[in-house]
Amino acid sequence: MNNREFIEELSAKLQLDTKETQRIVNSMVDSMATLLDEGNEIGVAGFGTFEVKKKNERIIVHPSTGKKMLVPPKLVLNFKQSNILKSQVKEKESQ
Amino acid sequence: MSKRAIFQDMINMLSGKSDMTKAQTEKFCRQFFTTIREALLREDYVKVKGLGIFKLINVSGRESVDVNTGQRIEISAHNRIVFTPDKTMASRINRPFENFETVVLDEADEGNEPATNVPDVKSDEQGETDMEEERSQSIYLGDDDEAEDGGQVNLMPEQEHADVPVQDEPEQGNASDLQTDTEEESQEEYEIDSGTPVWKKILCAALLLLLLGAAYFVGYYRLLGNTDILPSAPMPVGKEMPKQTAPVPAVKDTMALPNDSISETKETDWKAEAAKYEQMPNADYLIVGELETHEMGVGESIIRLSQKLYGSKDMAKYVIFHNHISNPDVIHVGKKVVFPKLHKSEDTEN
């Protein structure tokens, strides 16, 4: 399901215009990013947790050239599924 | 940190941005995540622009060991959610570190890296020398009656090969062989050393630049000293007079040169001149004229100028005295300072 389909479904459920839906989604994502920037974690009951984690710098060996490279540290957004969602997802497989 | 509160924060923030009520916003957010969940369960793949991609991946079943009981258990195949942040989102989150880039580590750097490669190299080296010694042993066995001796000697001081030639000195043939061995080894060591040419080159280049710079400044200093300020007097440059006490005799010399030539022609003139000026009490030098008038610029000090002009900081006091400067630490830019011509007073000369 790509973004357009997702927005369509969401707007159908909320009985909103798709453009309006997309606009709200954008501002919602933006406010999420702002909260994450400030170091918060965003937990959504029944869905999961969004959290920023720091990955340390590390030295890797380039597989083809064999050169050693220093990869800088970075911050990544992590998503951890909640237990409810996890079990639901697992069940789906067993169908 | 309450997770619920953070979710609430998000709703508050969003309702502030849009013109919706809080209740509407909350409904929207809940519907948002519910839709993602439902879509995930239905279609395996949901992409939300700006946030990222939620994807289900299949994990095949595998055998494992129960950590507590130690029994074998089977983990059945299941699905797992993988979330990949959108590029815009990822770069926004990573903004504090965005300036860092992946760096290729140099060979030279590698050598300096702590203790990962160094022991390997050493052990290789040792292995090679061991092998060589074994080879030489076999040669001795083939060649010589005293092969056993040579072999023993070789076995004994395996690591300190400096001892080997000393012990083998009477057996000249062996000794020479061993020497060639050690030579080979030393050659190898050189090769290992030459494995770091990059930083050596850099070091050489830096040194060269430094020398060039130093030469330039020294030359410039001399040029300035010769043409502009004090034509005949050689300036005491730092390299020539490294000691701190050195400038004082140097000053005497430099001062003597021009003044001697003057005193030959006008022997008593300086005394007459000196009478015209106010003299410093108990001073080694007398003020006999005015050498130069200098307008003080930004960052200049009398001490530094006198060092430049007379070759010694000690002369600053005459300048200060001559110009009646009460506080030499505070001199305003643009003030005209007269640098006096100095002559050694007779008391100290004889």
What labels would you give this structure?
heterodimer; A: 95 residues; alpha+beta; three-stranded antiparallel sheet; two-stranded antiparallel sheet; 5 strands; 28% strand; elongated; B: 350 residues; HU Protein, Chain A; Membrane-bound Lytic Murein Transglycosylase D, Chain A; 3 domains; 55% helix
What does this structure look like?
The complex is a heterodimer of chains A (95) and B (350). Chain A is an alpha+beta fold and 95 residues long. Chain A has a domain at 1-39. Chain A contains 3 helices and 5 strands; from the N terminus they run H-H-E-E-E-E-E-H. In chain A, the strands form 2 sheets. Chain A has a 3-stranded antiparallel beta sheet with strand order 1-2-5. A two-stranded antiparallel ribbon of chain A has the order 3-4. In chain A, strand 3 (58-61) and strand 4 form a beta hairpin. Chain A is elongated. The two termini of chain A are 20 Å apart. Chain B is α+β, with helices and mostly antiparallel strands. Chain B has 3 domains: 3-97, HU Protein, Chain A (Irregular), CATH 4.10.520; 118-191; 242-349, Membrane-bound Lytic Murein Transglycosylase D, Chain A (Roll), CATH 3.10.350.10. Chain B contains 14 helices and 8 strands. In chain B, the strands form 3 sheets. Chain B has a 3-stranded antiparallel beta sheet with strand order 1-2-5. A two-stranded antiparallel ribbon of chain B has the order 3-4. In chain B, helix 1 crosses helix 2 (22-43) and helix 5 (118-143) runs antiparallel to helix 8 (172-193). The longest helix of chain B is centred in the middle third of the chain and has 33 residues, at 197-229. The model of chain B is unreliable at 110-194 and 227-265 (pLDDT under 50). Classes of the chains: A alpha+beta (95), B alpha+beta (350). Chains A and B meet through helix 1, helix 2, strand 1, strand 2 and strand 4 of A and helix 1, helix 2, strand 1, strand 2 and strand 5 of B.
